[in-house]
Fold these 4 entries.
Entry 1:
Amino acid sequence: MWFKIGYFLLTNPRLVLKIFAGALVGILFFLMILLAPLALFLSGPMSTSSMIDIYVKGTDQAEEITADGYYGKSEINPMDVLIISAVQRRQDFSSASVRRSRDLAKRFIEHTGYRAKKIGYDDNGNPIYKDFPVYRIKSLEEVAIDLGFSSDEVRWAIEMRGINNQSVSTAGVGSGAALNWWTDVRHAFPRGMEVAITDVTTGRSFRMRRTGGRNHADSEPVSVMDAMVIFDIWGGWSWNRRPVIVELGGQLIAASMNGMPHGFDTIPGNGMRGHLCIHFRASRTHIGNRECIEHQAMVLRASGAIYDRVARSADVYDFTLDIEPEVISPTYPILAQPEGFE
């Protein structure tokens, strides 16, 4: 039998080649199906937020003209540039570019004169002075008026700035209910639902829409302004987890959120490509199907149950839950720890 099979293969090389090619294509297709979700997930973190990057880069370029200033390079808040642009465009960013955002950011810079600064000494020991330009960064309201905004447009810009920089007296203190994702939150927060989210540390708020996820809520900012607030709070796109409060059906829920866009994207034109992850008590990761200890620590902090070692400072979180008495808030009850904690 093997002789006949060998003879058949030798006398029909084209058929053998077709069979081999078909099998190879089938295997590759099968591998593509298996690897597609992973490839999509991994491609997310490398994706940039095109809209926000445009305004950040444009602002950086505008700041360069103040690099030789008496006080050094001046800082322009890209949030203000985006707000002015949003009012001008009625939030239509279809033709946004780095050049346009740079030119708009330049309007925030005012040259107010020169000031002498000692730069060294001559051969005789006498001080040498040089005049350096002095720059002032205008306020959002000043720029709006300079651009001829109507009173309604000026008020609109100021209101947007106020909303995106709100800071409440309880900022840094969590007060959300640590509800279980599986039994209390998952079905009450369906896909397509929009919620207001407040960062515990800063007290600043933004809106998110749940767009997917089963083990936790994959969500996306509703607008460019919401994405810009997130970018500003996290200090750039970051995997750092932060304690947040989710307003859901009139109830304040303790949660944790990262700030790195990744994976699928369903809301075009919101300034961000990808989605962010919002975790609740006992929620799990998609990859590995496990509770993330950092996210769960932030959920407990958002509930007011515990503080981390840098209480009221959310720059970096590496919380390991080796809880000691001094990191437990005495003014809040200690909640029962979720399953998976040791």
Note: The longest strand covers residues 109-121.
Entry 2:
Amino acid sequence: MSDFKKRFLRYIKRAGAGSMLISIILHVFIIGGATVYVVSSVHPQRKALFKGDDSAAASVQHPVKMSNTQPNLDTLTRRISVDTPESAVSLPDLPTNTDSGISSPTLDASLNGAGTGNGSLKGPLMPIFGFKEAQTGGTLVGNFYDFKQLRTGKPNPDYVPDVKKGSTLDGGAGHLAGVEVKNFVDKNFSRSSLYKFFVAPDPLYTTQVFVPSMNADAAPAAFNVDKVAKGKAWMVLYRGKVSPPVTGTYRFVGGADDMLVVRMDGRIVLDGGIHPVTKVEPDAPRYKYPPFSGSGVFPKGFMIGKSMQLRAGQFYDINIAISEAPGGVFNAFILFEQEGVKYDTTSDGSPILPIFRVAPGNTEPSNAAPPFMPNGPIWKALPAPKD
């Protein structure tokens, strides 16, 4: 026995403790020392078990809230609708999933931009005159002007109400629109020349100009001013900055009933209305397309614009003026072609061209519009100007 233990026992005996107490104290020391040794030398591995494990062994329970990564089935199967300025366009119901997984539904080919292709919905169905909100990625901003009234809402003293004689209209809205659009174009698209006229309070934002033949009253209705502006002697001006898909030589091709003028990078590159505003001559013979509703006003076909040398990544100012003169039917279309690209053709050899647009979108083929190339190249645009 060590000197330390002997001295300890003598101390315990002097304190009056018996052999039983001594034995207990010795065992406590021994057990305590063994416990310290085991704990310090062995560190057990603890396995974290999520709720639902039936193990009865000692475990650490961590309540975990799982995120809802599965979309709501009601959202997937309800009808898709697009709020357009004219009306809500409802698309067909998506097919109901019958299996336990969530799959990407295949849409009918008619939902695709041109009604062909794989049927995938690549963009929103394009409202005729534009969206109520600017679109992500850049758009053209459009303002509606009514030449028949002043900015104050008072009648324009230069407007002479239409006087019908036989089957023609003398003067009136048609004459007024022709004069004012020409004045605007002659002044290099300066909006100061439009300041005196009534302008719709809210602009629209478009990614293309492709308006099938329709009643001219649709324009003021789209801009929500149909209660104060009639569908004649009006003009819509679209503005923005655009860049071509790739560097190359381009030409706009278009037609409109009544007026359509495009100014790009400071020069007139297309005057495609049935009532020419400028003396700009086309670079090539016009393109004729199969008859469609309203195409009777294009006996010579669509105008081919001036050639433009454009560089991808560089943005160019663009102004597009479309106008209705006497009222009635209105349409406006802007397509484009790139030099060196081979396009499919119509029966008479005219190329089927892509729509000029600055964002993917769905434009359904119509018997009130010319044919166009499905899923054509997309131009780029900067965010719509706010001035």
Note: The longest helix spans residues 19-41.
Entry 3:
Amino acid sequence: MPANLPPQYFETEKKLKSAKTSEEKIVIMEELLSIIPKHKGTEKLQALYKTKIAKLRAQKQKKQATSRGGPSFHIDKAGAGQVVLVGPPNSGKSQLIQSLTNADPEVGDYPFTTHSPYPAMMPFENIQIQLIDMPPVTPDFLEAWQAELIKGADVVLVVLDLDSQDTARDCQMISEKLKEKNIEFVPAGKRIEPGNRLFRKKALIAANKTDRPDADLNLTFLLELTGSEFKTVPVSALRGDGIEELRAIIFGALDVVRVYSKEPRKKADTGDPFIFQKGETLMDMAKTVHKDFARKLRFARIWGRAKYEGQ
């Protein structure tokens, strides 16, 4: 059976040949898995990439285990932004990653299924957003490397279990545990003011397991704790409820804009946008294209809803 791979697959595959680090290769292969159509003709290709990803992760963990001073992880940012998932044991973070991306993390109905960071790429419209699953946070467990990954991320997605005995208390515990590491959550969309020794991180809440019997009651208690400031999205990673809404809210929290390049007398390339933080300028884009391009730039034409065409 033919694979019928789209043109985007071959463009992404080219990046794999120039990737140097294991992290880069894993991110690109995750992106390829998200692009490959899911049917019988691509099963072998999907299996090939999953095997390669598993081998790279195993090699990486082996190196970390033999290094001095305990584990230390760094994951280069990829796509339109980096979102770290944090949550208590059995909140369903890995299953949520599986629902939002085409990655295949280990999912188990027992605590600490995830024992090292797991990056995956979430497709949203014509871009990809990097999600990172991590081991759960408990009153006694939050490793230094987890705090460092959270500090470096663009957004934190707090995943809570609506089937827990006390969902609101779990949320409070995570907030208190991170404050011990000088990390404070602020609602996504709110201006982040410099903190006194605190790393202030934009946060969203995914209230998972809406398919469970006590979900509505636990959600009510959770909303009483968080109020209307923090965006809370009820989802079921198992059933798929709320997944598309969550994708859009994650994108909005990154506070980025997509900019499309256009060669003279040709249509704009709307398939592969440049990604910039809101507030960045035309010169920032010129520098991204090439430093010489920025140095020699005399003018540019801009198209957009708030501009005259070709202004």
Note: Strands lie at 82-86, 118-124, 127-133, 155-161, 183-187, 199-208, 232-234, 256-259, 274-277.
Entry 4:
Amino acid sequence: MIQAQGILYLVGTPIGNLEDITLRAIRVLKEVDLIAAEDTRTARILLGRYEIKKPLISYYDPQEETKSSGIVEKLKSGVKVALISESGTPGISDPGFRLVRAAIAAGIAVVPVPGPSSVLAALVVSGLPTDRFAFEGFLPPRPAAALSRLAALREEERTLIFFESPRRLLRTLEHLERALGDRWIAVARELTKKFEEVIRGTISEVRSRMAPGPRRVRGEIVIVVEGKAGPSAASELPFPEQVKKLETELGISRMEAIKLVAKTSGVGKSEVYRAVHPKTVTEKEVNSDQ
């Protein structure tokens, strides 16, 4: 008799309020043979609330690669596995991608069980356009890399969504204003929890309200940022002036500014480089400077 393969369920869990779990999620968690959780302590609280008693194993970032193969072997033998993150949907800035890829490669059925989303919750309460948006996750920790990423988004017309930690929030707001200008934003923290708060206004206004003082910023944070509206004055400038503007405003190197101008203008780096340094470089030299 051939052993039927198992199923990998990607189960969305509450982002704060435990009442937000779906009936289907509860049923699936009760029916599977094994639950893989990003944080077993958080998982036990949720499972205890709904009297779910199933074997539980940890599955977090440093373990993803090593544990994925073991879980896939269990799935091949017919075990049904539910993957849950600390909160929200597995794989969204949380572990899960490698396991999903491995399961698909092994021919295992992968089934989503949708649930709460801090991305969508923050977006719909932000007051910003919801018809088109881009989720960017966490910005790079290094300031230069963060500014470079934001500079590449200057011409993005869709609403932008970022995750951030409390300790980096003020620095990130500074980066946003420096790279994108004083746009309208919403900072949502502790969504669905007791101290839920959404602060709306221009970046400079929100920065002043969140500035260090008697109140310490806590909790999980989602930042929703207005997309670019209308034609960009910067994009109408000649390439050398665009490059100089980026160097001055962001404090990045000339080559980094050239790469950003090329990306936002939809042209090759060599074309921008030749405009900035006419008759001083070959295309081979530009392409070799990565």
Note: The chain is about 40% helix and 15% strand.
